Fold these 4 entries.
Entry 1:
Amino acid sequence: MRIGIDIGGTFTDVVVLEDGEVLRSWKVQSTPQNFEEGVLNGIELAAEELSLSVQEFLGSTTHFIHGTTVTTNLVLTRSGERVGLITSDGFGDTYELARQYRGHEQDPAKVTHPAPLVPRQDVEEVTERIDYSGRVVAPLNEAQLVESVRRLLKKGIRSFAVCFLWSYVNPEHEARAKQAILDEDPDVYVSASYEVCPVAGEYERTSTSVINAYCGPALKRYAIRLNQRLRELGLSRPVLIMKSDGGPASIEGAATSAVQTLYSGPAAGVVASEFLGGQIGERNLITFDMGGTSTDVALVYDGEIQTTSSQFFERHAVATPMIDLTSVGAGGGSLGWAGMGDTLQVGPQSAGAMPGPACYGNGGSEPTVTDANVALGLIDPEYFLGGRIDLDSNLAERAIAELGQKLQLTMTETAVGMYRVVNAVMADAIRLRTVFKGFDPRDFTLVSFGGAGGLHCAAVAGELQISRIVIPRMASVFSAAGLLASDITYSFVQSATIEAGKGGTVSSESLASINEIFAGLDTRVKGELDTHEVASSERVLSHAIEVSYLGQILNFEITAPMKVLDQQDIKKLVEDFDERYIKIYGPGAAAPETGYTLKTYKVVGIGKIGLSHFKAVAPDHAGEKLSPKGERVALADTDTGEMRSIPIYDGNQLSVGAEFAGPAVAEFWNTSVLVPNGWSTRVDERSDIILQRQ
């Protein structure tokens, strides 16, 4: 038996694989104050419904894979550990000065730096200097270092980040600094940039190391508590945790590299989408994961997940290998509010799991997207989560009406407005991943999942002129299912700027440096796979290099052959870069005559443990006439906002081959799907729901 558990901001999802391919799923409310309680509640519910004791359930488990929001929540709520930062003399302000972040904001006046996670008074400068070639220019002043560490310890600091100039070229000083800190107190947490992110860019390395130190202690404590509880209850297999690069690792190892779990849950959904695309023959996918707190968007292009080695999270730079994701504060729990000039706004603030939307009846009084969907007839208050949770439509309508009074709108107008605004926010997120990257969204199929995705995906797709949507049968727990489809993955990167002339010509010394870097990264990857006892036959390693034109910031990650590279390999590498550049930006855009820059080198090691297939089983009603279970007044046309009586189908009873045209709603036990006017739907051979623009 395999178990996948994904913690979201509102719900914790549990997926269990039975009989080799059949998935079963459950949802429980997340417990942000003590996340492991939500995990254990989900395990208890699954065991009960499988007629097993918890001990029997966990005792028969062969794989336990976990997606978590622990680190995400720490950064979002700024509730991580107090961190002391030790850096090179004269560079104590680098972290606070930061790097300009614009995101999709077009007004320069609104561009702001993130509030630093480490205040300036907790930054210590130490005399040392290593130059760009790795040569020691000024030795590390160890006496000064010890004094700095002791000052920070006296302040009560228990977590340290260390980032010196050019440490990614020569880590000698950082390694000695880390050891000096541990010599003073072996129980503190130390995040050294040469271990966390040995890449170019002093701000990026510092920011990443700080986030790791900020989140690491809490994730470590969580890992210890969860491991202990699971062992007491009968789990004998290791707990694996999903990382931002789309592969799980040991939960103990993840605690030392906490920054790599910032996108733990969302990454699993992208992995599941890639897996689904391979099953149905779709190579270009936009993944659209709308949950209770946020919506996450990523791309699968030509059958491959798009990745990056540098990203912003809450305007903080993160320089580790990860899936290239855009996350926006738009979900079922997103709050509607009146902005400047009495304009209707939605998110990024969220009602969270507690008190949750007004309709939950837990004390929430502000209207959320879920409340709007209830008011628009898209959610049956008596059938939320299959009837396990009763919603109060009166509370939803009252909260929306109060907001409407501020905006001089009716309750229905306000609900429709909230629906449209949150859709516009999510459509913009997709544009960031497609149009802003040189991709046409019309060339992609939208994969919609998350508990709230099915009610919004058609409207979002319509705004982008996307004509085809795939909604997995297990859409609301799809990320948890993706955990079971994932393989153990380790990604390591290292920067070294090497210029290549026209045609990709490099010196013999540069070629030797490239091969030396790859050899070192190979050793690290293989060492991590060894800890999981992955057989050699189940290992796959790959090499890649980030390439740009000389003097250009934009770069692409290009696959390199798994061998000692020679000049012909570099020539082929830049040719592949030119080809990709032209494919995205068009003929005439390439500039091979300028020469090239090889920037960052990456090795990915995969240990094959994921599933080759899985499915959700649909009922067999072949030959039976498809009939709705009833009708109700609901949002029928997402373009005009028209409300009218539309058919409601029991989604749980939709068998393979079932089809109908909109407007209609299909209600599943864990989600609902709106088929608006101008769309049709059918159930494919995998039991997934296909929406098509007419």
Entry 2:
Amino acid sequence: MTVKFEIKDQLARLLATEDLIVEHKKVETASFNVNSRVLILPMWDKASNNVYDLLVGHEVGHALFTPNVDISKFKAPSSFINVVEDARIEKLIKRKFPGLCKSFFRGYWELHEQDFFEVQGLEVGDISLIDRINLYYKGNKDMVFSNEENQFVDKTGKTETFQEVCDLAAEIHAFMKDQKKKEEEELEKLEDVTPDADMNDTPQSGSGESVDEDGEESEGEDEDNSHPLFDDGDKTESGSSISVDNLQGGDEYEKEIDEALTDKNLSKNLESLIDNSMGRETTYLSVPSVKTETVVVSPQDVWDYFDRKTAELEAEEHHFYNYQAIQYSYDEYDSFKQSAKKEVNYLVKEFECRKSATAYARATTSRTGILDTTKLHTYKYNEDLFKKISVIPEGKNHGLIFILDWSGSMNFVLRDTVKQLLNLVWFCKKVKIPFNVYAFTNEWYRNCDDDRIPQMPYGELLHQSFADYELRINDTFNLLNMISSDSSVKEFEQHCKNLFCLACNSSNSYNYPRLSLSGTPLNEAIVSLHSLIPEFKSKYKVEKLNTIILTDGESQTMGYNKSYMGRDGETLHGHYSVNSYGCSLRDRKLGRTYNFDNDWSGLTKVLLQNISEKFPEVNFIGIRLMQGSDARRFIANSTNYDYDMTDKMMRVWKKQRSIALDNTGYKKYFGMSAAALANEDTFEVQQDATKSQIKRAFSKSLSAKKLNKKILSQFMELIA
């Protein structure tokens, strides 16, 4: 049974409590970088789940507890140190995570069954002391020791520091060398003895006396013995006993005294679990720290540019028609604002009601020190004679961040989207909630018509510092701060009006090149929120923040930074496209690794999951206005293309012309029909209209109102 690394990697993250990063690479052995705190693990493709849990737990133990020192300076052989250190770090990791005891027991049992230590067929007496200690602490309960050897076994289990490990390894090595020397001397003496005398002096075997795991003599009975593999006190059955005499050596096997053979054999055989010809090595990516001072374009800069371009349209005769279109939009704005008052008031009412209900739900009642005279007559049977006071806690400070899709595909729904946005903005203004409206674009610098376009030196990026395997924020990316609660009343009104005009004339956006519709850098916008959110919360002292993303589709592709070696040997800074089948997003602070579902929208979903976990106090809400033909694809993507579920949700869509989705990365993702919302709330018919025409117009008007109220009510439920 093979291992799915994206699933089993959870184990490593649970164990890695000290800012430890776990990566699976096509390597032969595990390694740990102390400085970067990155643990590289081989891709044990052929390991069972038990063996995999054991190996990960073991290597994480080394990463957490083994210091980064040069062991060559110590007197003991490196394999001796490794054996004793393995026992120490496994004891410590099981002490820290007791649930690993079972994983270690089962994993080592499988390795013993498959003879990974290569000791099957050997008598216990043919195995050196260091190898027996290694096998004993790796779950082989058949190991026995003489009284003299038992002291080293006990010391191994009691080591707490790496220095103690090295000192003990040197002691064991010295003891084994001394024993080797004594055996050689004994052999020399035996060679000088006559054969008859030798036979008479040979001790009788099979006397029934044996040595248990504690080094004490027993009468051969079987009894349960505690084993270090179980720190929680579980017992294992003892195996067959062996004569003390047999521990002194064997004729068929010459013990190795300078190397732990079982340690060497295990390392060699673990390589058989690795199949580097299969699968694809994962590229682990991280979210960069974004420079908001370069990413965000202030409202002043945005609308100064708009005013300058509008004045140019007015001055040029061949553009006068476009100028008139702008003026017509101003008039339309006034009409829309007047008609939107009902919806805004409805939002205010919903918000205040829900906020008050939440406050009362948190209300507490406490006794005062004042007697309630109305209860004095009940003193014989009632001890509660004091007045009570209800304490209603103050509501939380709210804030909203709006992210508006300023891409070319929004051209058909931008007007209706901006209408919904303005309703929410006016609501925020009325209830005095701080907010900012950002539109993401790639055109602000790309279409720059003056000398302000940034020229960065080679290797430097405008919005972030270059670092390998960080997501790349393109230098052309910007967030246009269209509207802000910080603006004065006059400025706020003008900015709302300008945004409405731009939305109404989006097809003529070439008149405003730097404000023209762009690609869809939605992912870059989400990444930027990692910096924007803390700044917003700090500035406005916000406790509850809602971030609303208004878009019509999926994000464009995103790249990541990676250095490479040039022909002349110099280090060059390049970037590569994010591939969902070979990349994962990693957050070191959270200890989380996220794998993508698909190429198209997988990264967006992962970025939303990550930022939601990083800022659990923030609601991330999606609002998507769609044409009818886009609904099925939108819903199918959220169900991971489950056709039965898609069909079920499509029936809801056709009936309501809206739907609220959960499994999308957002707290809630609202899909709304652009055509339905485009219908005016007013009930208008021609004078010569028939009864059926009047009926249809009235029904259409009611449906639009019903849809708006339904969506807005759900929206208020989330943000209040």
Entry 3:
Amino acid sequence: MPENTPAAGFQFGLANLKPAHPTEKITVTFPDGAQREFPKSTTGLDIAKGISPSLAKRTVAMALDGVLSDLADPIEQDARIEFVNRDDPRALELIRHDAAHVLAEAVQALWPGTQVTIGPVIDSGFYYDFFRNEPFTPEDFAAIEKKMREIIAKDKPFTKEIWTREQTKQVFRDKGELFKVELVDAIPENQTIRIYKQGDWFDLCRGPHMTSTGKIGSAFKLMKVAGAYWRGDSNNPMLTRIYGTAFAKQEDLDAYLHQIEEAEKRDHRKLGRELDLFHFQEEGPGVVFWHPKGWSVFQGLIAYMRRRLAADYQEVNAPQILDKSLWETSGHWDWYRENMFAAQSAGDEAEDKRWFAIKPMNCPGHVLIFKHGLKSYRELPIRLAEFGIVHRYEPSGAMHGLMRVRGFTQDDAHVFCTEAQLADECLKINDLILSTYADFGFEGELTVKLSTRPEKRVGTDAAWDHAESVMTKVLEQIKAEGHNRIRTEISPGEGAFYGPKFEYVLRDAIGREWQCGTTQVDFNLPERFGAFYIDEHSNKVAPVMVHRAICGSLERFTGILIEHYAGHFPLWLAPVQAVVTTITSDGDDYAREVFEACRKAGLRVEIDLRNEKINYKVREHSLAKIPALLVVGKKEAETRSVSIRRLGKEGSSVVPLDEALAALIDEATAPDVKRMKGIA
């Protein structure tokens, strides 16, 4: 048969095969910018395996267009892909989420019949709420952690299934998981029901998860238990909430546990009692009873802020109680009433029975002060500052020492300026905030966040465009001038309804972050109150209003300072800067001389002439965090010297009295005063 003659019978080849429909393709963009086409519905795992088996093995999830997803999810459209391993900061949330699921499985394995409810990730770790007749206690943690390690060691894959609503409810109903049935009912109709399995155990969950339980690792720990009402409603059953934390590495967990230990030592509530600074009591929930020493620190903080503002700000004071009609005009009565306190005359026969509001913030009062009298563009910017006491309702469970109170003092200020002046004012405020934090010893990394327009907002798009453009440029300048100390972030949609804002987050001595300072642009309040200035064309123009706080709540900032310094304040801020004490009664007369010399020099000083051993006195004053102890005896009296012991330092040094006074006076001078005097 000739070579090219077709053979008899049925013939086919690959070249003859054609798909009925062309395979749909998607384009995937990799982190280096490279692009490849894949069939639609290709999974992230397939792509990772195609690159290398080792990549697939170490990848725990993927990010599609920046959104974390299960690695096994099909990719249905063009997307930018990133492979996430355990060491990626984004994986920490997944590790904790997976650990919460394993916690729930462990609890149900150990105590069958326990109902699981919800188990979200939180800033410090995760928790899971359980319903059981007998509440869990920390004594149960060892058994639970052991069971969790067993589950993790099995390394079961996390798999996702889509169930129907009725199927889901029936399955959980059959299991006796009535809280889960209620959760299913709460899921909007347009959302799919996702079930995640790890071996035989499963849970209702939105995801995502890592590829298997083994990826959680061993760096986890259960921390505490607490009671929690189902859905936060006291009419509902009480649940037991088990808190835990987890990290990618053991050293990260160890560092966190050390931080917790340090935080407990530094707890401002504990130190407040030990150092006799302040107290709270039931008759005044959420308001501070300042003791003399605590009040000294608080007033030192205010005095410092007053000096810093003196050159550029005018200090004002707006009334504490104002008719509710004013708060209706400002919008607070409608939008903020649940956080406000109202007052009325207590007398039954009082002529005026109007309702008044105790001010929750200073802003409306400052607008009214600005409005009083005609203002020209030549007078702008006008900067009004107030150390105003405000009151805001906080639920009793939310209050936390000085950190969360109902009555507090704001180092509040409002700048009224033109649009052209906005950038300079933001930069000026930034310099003030950063230098203030540095003066109080916060010299580590700071974060400045720009929050942009939310969906619900007031003001024109043009005004928002201008403000956000200005603040974005300011943010870039802040970062450029920060010399790697300033980290910047943008939080899209997190601005206030009335304008974009900066938030300043500082880091304390043990690495905790505290959001304190704010700069907020306001398009709303001046217009609501009809505030205006006359521009160069004789037109009435609403000013740009900038809300500014440096410390925020001065009570809270004092609490932060107590914990930052562990009660050992720098000498310029310490309530008692020095104590003069004696070795024997032979030194009493000279001790009185030293005490008077310190007092006349402006030092906050006390004298201790008790007939006690010197070691006892040293220990007692050390526990009271006294920065300097001036010990005198017969020998010191003869040489007109003092023996100085400094808190936190070993031993003592004997120096002439004049020299000791000069050194203490220098150290007791606030950093801003030193700069003004040119002695910094």
Entry 4:
Amino acid sequence: MGKIYMNRELSWLKFNERVLEEAENESVPLCERMTFVSIFESNLDEFFMVRVGSLRDQMLIDDKWKDNKTHMTAQEQIHAIFREVRKLSKRKDKIYEKLMREVERFGICLINFQTAQEEEQQYLEKYFETEIAPLISPTVVGKRQPFPFLRNKEIYAVVVLETRSGKERLGIIPCTNNMLERMIPLPFGQKRYMLSEELILHFMSKVFKGYKIKGKSLIRVIRNADIDADAVYDEDLDYREFMAELMKERKKLSPVRLSLSREMDGNVVRALCRYLDMDTDSVFRERTPLDLSFVFEIEDMLRKNAELFYEKRVPQKTPDIKEGICIMEQIQQEDKMLSYPYESIRTFLNLLLEAAEDENVVSIKMTLYRLAKQSKIIEALCEAAENGKEVVVLVELRARFDEENNIAWSRMLEKAGCQVIYGLENYKVHSKLCLITRKEEGKIEYITQIGTGNYNEKTSRLYTDLSLMTANVDIGLDAAKIFQALSKGEVVEESEHLLVAPKCLQSKVLTLIEEEIRRAKQGEEAYIGLKLNSLTDKKIMDKLVKASCAGVKIEMIVRGICCLVPEIPGKTENIHVISVVGRFLEHSRIYMFGSKERRKYYIGSADFMTRNTVKRVEVAAPVYQENLKERLQQLFDILWNDNQKARLEDQNGDYHIKTDEKEPWNAQEKLYEIAYENIAEK
């Protein structure tokens, strides 16, 4: 019998493999396949920065520590990760090479010096001497010149130099330079290009004159980004300024991965590792360019070839909101729900603007995690504060890799007169919660919005998310209680309607699962349906196993990490798992409990990961209105029946394209078709 649980990190790598499969999939347009290769690589960078970084730290703290699902030590996990990454990297190399051959059919060719024609070589030599050489800063490592600091994710050219006396030196040149064009165009009538780092590497002999070149390579370092703000925070410091300093510190953390573009002598590699204070196990040889972000430049050149891209889709207006009528009034009549990217976030933005201008609105309160670079949300909140409303905003400054953006927005909000809270000690605030409070004729009214995704206009076009807007008083009172607690630096201990982590989400989910177990044991129909980004919470998984053994039918759509292995006889045979990886990033969370006639529906910000259920502030809301329950069920069913982008997980934890005899069914495209039809009918 197979193992019930899978290691979290290895499960994540299986997810990134599914991303890579989209780059392999010939039914996906060419430029979109290139995007998937780039996403695969940037995902992997972040994985090393965060997950491998934290495992490295764990080894230093306690080398005997084991994870609670597979009982692997940090060292064992790192070994397993590196083994899988090397396999995936070889696959990525082949895919990239194939894609670049296909790009050549459209007249764009990426060359190296060996494939360059004679006149091109002459042009490139002159270009190097006039355009690049004056801008680069070479270093020869020696007694008087220490090994330079290598910035995270930047490319460097490294060369082994031999002096006339036979001594070896190391030469290093930074290649990531904003003043340099990454893709150097060749001026001979064809769209032929060379990457600037390859040109620098080729002409190292011109830079380091008087030395013999013994070996050379491009290198790229990935550094640990896992830094615990709460562990090092001094209460005497301004928290925002402390976070700004912390961002600077992150850039200096220890390396966890070293990528090489060429094979280099083992002694040289070991010397590089000594300088960087890392193991040779962390060295990876790459056949593709070390940074694939340039593929987006190629895509821009091919933009006129519509067949190379997905069909253009634009978020539609929701048919549930009538134009020209106050949105708040419409929500007071019945609950509304938006489904991104199929429906536009504009409705919610208009709701905020209405609230900012409504003389009866007394306050707007929001939790903000990730925002767009150009945020209409911030503009609306600032306008509300300037109009005399009480605006209370919790800005989570520990939103990883968005800290600088959030610091800037927090300053703007304060300047406009908003009260800004900078998160809670020990708990990240990841909830997507907005509470608008009105007072009319002495009566208090609430409009509460609960979402599954961030208040971010850009990602609302790229991620699938849900946004519930309700005038339900009980939900409003629960939300008010949450904001009161946050203002005091506390968490909610209990709530009646909303599921609120860290204190009363996991326990309520366990109770809901237990109810289905009880029903199944009584011979009744019992069901659990979950749509999540990740599943790692051991308590919840143990309960799901118990439910499966009791005969509860469990269907789960889990995009990323799934540590629970389904369909194992006698254990998880009633659990079925699919993952949908397609054009849009599946991000919405839906929890469903009970047979059709008694089914309870929730949407929320929390995945079933321990970090979400007990270590963060998260909010999930019940959906009470029948037509919205039907919409959620329809959404789940459409995704469940996908046979184009869905992968079915088997009892070995492996994923296979979900194939059947039915007509092709791409859930995301189907949902967009419905959005277009709805607005056309209106």
